[in-house]
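Review form for a predicted model. The reviewer records the input and the model, then writes brief findings.
Reviewer: anonymous (R2)
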Amino acid sequence: MHSAMAARNKVSVALLLLLCAGACVALARPSEFSIVGYSEEDLASHDKLMELFEKFVAKYRKAYSSFEEKLRRFEVFKDNLKHIDDENKRVTSYWLGLNEFADLTHDEFKAAYLGLAPARNDDDEDRSSAFRYEDVDMAGVPREVDWRKKGAVTEVKNQGQCGSCWAFSTVAAVEGINAIVTGNLTALSEQELIDCDTDGNNGCNGGLMDYAFSYIAANGGLHTEDSYPYLMEEGTCRRSPQGDDDEAAAVTISGYEDVPRNNEQALLKALAHQPVSVAIEASGRNFQFYSGGVFDGPCDTRLDHGVTAVGYGTAMRGHDYIIVKNSWGAQWGEKGYIRMRRGTGKHDGLCGLYKMASYPTKTA
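Model under review:
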């Protein structure tokens, strides 16, 4: 009985401290997070940690169902912060930082923010054999490419807690080739793919980019984001099966091709000509909290996330990288992007980057 009362008192005191910390933050002058979201001073005491947590809650507009839940999230936050700080003392080419995922356990994060589904066949049966850039001479490939600077990449988007990464990867690649061919950069609808592309893809429960390219080519194109906006959940398909929609599809493609597997040069050849959909393993804890620099792991090659390669280059330290557009919002990573190390000597690339790459084709 006495121990139960003591435990309740301990929780009450902790909750009171959290409330007090929140009040202090509200009264203090606003201050920006550092590049990693915390300072060594923040780690010095329990009170400083609670104050940092309240800043985090305010910055990302977090709301919890109860004080007990808030206390639990504070404990998760502390554990994540310890991991971030420990890793920042160890890694040298990149750094981790606090972001909106800092109050999630690693399992919660993996369950909510990925979404690449396994292929129907685990071999090359479903992959196209054509590769139009096969005969491109590597000597003529630029040393660096950034399709953002060439006007072929829309703003970073946010899939939210819906396993729709495959749709965002697909759309970014289609937006890219359309801009290159037509000169018009148009934001397209991921929601249409989530709602309507059900042949192999499964909405917020995962999908594959190749299946989505096939859907777009077979169904007369894709609508704009404005005409078919993102809901962060599955909805009813608003596209007429007869193709007589009130508003015609804005962008069409001819088809798609796969980049030869486990071939860095082939990926660079394709990237020199257009953005490319790629699959990676993004479930690692360091990937979750990546904040900047050239990421070099640790990660495995069990593909679980669809993203879009939009260029490549070399950092000042001499590290070669691929520029990858993610779909976790502009506050993650380098304004929504990550630079992933290339030239690692790994057959299938860092995090499996070379295992499943493909791009849409467009003739006019």
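Findings: The longest strand covers residues 305-314.
Further findings: The radius of gyration is 22 Å.
Recommendation: see findings above.
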